[in-house]
Amino acid sequence: MSDPTFAPRPTLEAVAARAGVSRATASRVVNGSEGVRAPLAERVRQAVDELGYVPNQAARTLVTRRNDAIAVVVAEPETRFFTDPFFAQQVRGISRELTAHDNQLVLLLTEGAADYGRVGRYLAGGHVDGALIFSLHSDDSLPVMARKAGVPTVIGGRPSWSDADTLYVDCDNRGGAQVAVRHLLGLGRRRIAHIAGPLDQTASVDRLDGYRDVLPDVDPKLIAEGDFTPEGGARAMGELLDHWPDLDAVFAASDVMASGALRVLRNRGMRVPEDVAVVGFDDITSVADWTDPPLTTIRQNIEEMGRMMARLLLRRLSPLAAVDGAPALSPIVTATQLVVRASA
Amino acid sequence: MSDPTFAPRPTLEAVAARAGVSRATASRVVNGSEGVRAPLAERVRQAVDELGYVPNQAARTLVTRRNDAIAVVVAEPETRFFTDPFFAQQVRGISRELTAHDNQLVLLLTEGAADYGRVGRYLAGGHVDGALIFSLHSDDSLPVMARKAGVPTVIGGRPSWSDADTLYVDCDNRGGAQVAVRHLLGLGRRRIAHIAGPLDQTASVDRLDGYRDVLPDVDPKLIAEGDFTPEGGARAMGELLDHWPDLDAVFAASDVMASGALRVLRNRGMRVPEDVAVVGFDDITSVADWTDPPLTTIRQNIEEMGRMMARLLLRRLSPLAAVDGAPALSPIVTATQLVVRASA
DNA sequence: CTGAAAGCGCTAACAC
DNA sequence: GTGTTAGCGCTTTCAG
């Protein structure tokens, strides 16, 4: 049996020969550039079809230095990446935007810092034109690697350092948190607890800051740290109740954690929202709409943020961006919005 | 401000010059081939470090025709891909195996047949050495594209066609289903329903066949088709109960669907397993262990199957595989195992 | 054991 | 408009 791998793929040379033109002309037709007379172009196209010609990307990349591929790097154990709907939505937004611009999404999974070397090599190897990096923890070295590798990058979420030419997309975490807490205050709640995300991520810190902005003198025991999982939310809720059995509201830094908190509340026989009002963050419909009761939460348009990341990167990559006088690119911070359901 | 993108990356030529050797020798050192005298090799390595040299993949690929990258293509709406723990586990297995062999995993997402063209082009463009394709529906054209593109492929799950040189990895769906149903029979159950997966996938058909093997004369109304989601499982359970209010057992073609069925059963006030015994399929711990009651199910080692897919493909790609007398590669069908918990 | 030289397939000046 | 030509950065015979 012949090995299909070794079936030599036709080259541009072959196409040109068959169409009776030069390689250059064939290349022009294949790349859709103007200024090839119609009949010639037609002959080339036909040859392409007959031969089933597909350009060799490696050869093309070698000269153009472009891949039309973008890496998405997630600095998070695969488990959470796959489990948390947050990523799914963001990746979908990215995927759609990239696809619309004929760019291929290349998802690079990391199971932990041990994989960073491999990812760094991949980026430095010039496989992709740019990178979208996610879910940074404060010590994260991925963006540094990308920069060293000369790969333009946009970061999902505000990075912990600040730096004039670091591009990122984030939502107004602090403002959203303030709105959440004020909503609870407006409901007459006075013992408002907070379930924070892991505090090595800026999103968690910003949401905590927003909470503190509104409640400056709050007892530290009203704050517990979760890890953006339902279990973490449940655990935090438990701690909170141990210290403050009579708390009357909880603002959780994510819907997923809020769902865990809800479970604990129910198990302990506390009614939501009568005894304890609960507000989440994210508005992940598959979670917030499904909990019992449905979750009041702070919406951020996650898919749209994914799109924006991709768009920002693509613009950064565009030759136009390098021209003097082109508008400078800057980070994007999107607005959030309170969504009132039954839990608060 | 200087644009980091345009910082020219050092070439092998530069490394060679700095080390005072020829490009050929530098290449040998970089690629770890034998037969370069130690002191020379050392000088080259030092030059590499000092310059921060990383080989240009495009150039390398152009001559070696290898990418050391494997595509994973999922023919499933992103939504399910991200939601269903099944994929997460399989991808993890693949990822680990590929990483161990210094291959990069490139995940290609498709939102539907509209994206197939793009994926086909990507495969044909020679970006990857091979492809792992998942979740085929009977009309699926992805494997055909891969073959046309000359990209060696291993399929996850038995494909609907049969073909001597199509490689796949699957579990013994039919046998597993038989065991599940016999277990239910052994429990004294006599009105055993089945919640099937979408019948355009072989896994669903095979599990249904297994059920029918044991229960050849079953009433068609005891079979309902789901879609591998909890909601689908719930809907199917509803239909089943409408026709057979007194059924005493259900075999669901996946744990995820079983979890939906469990919810419906509870809502209708039926006790599990007293009134209705339930058996799932997959043994996805995050689901089966968490349901109430925990699910009796048929275990397949999903992560290991992912590993096997990767290993099979890598072997297929290895130069050794092309040698005459090399062992022929063949599809792999893994055994399943009954795991008894509380639901049956 | 090391170096010189010939491409891999393609694009982009530059001529014609 | 179209063809000719010179590389892109690397690996790999083939001499020495």
TrEMBL record, chains A, B:
Species the sequence originates in: Streptomyces polygonati
Keywords attached to this entry: DNA-binding, Transcription, Transcription regulation
Highest rank taxon of the organism: Bacteria
PROSITE patterns (alphabetical): HTH_LACI_2 (PS50932)
HTH lacI-type domain ranges (all copies): 10-64
SMART domains xref list: HTH_LACI
Protein name: LacI family DNA-binding transcriptional regulator
GO terms assigned for molecular function: DNA binding
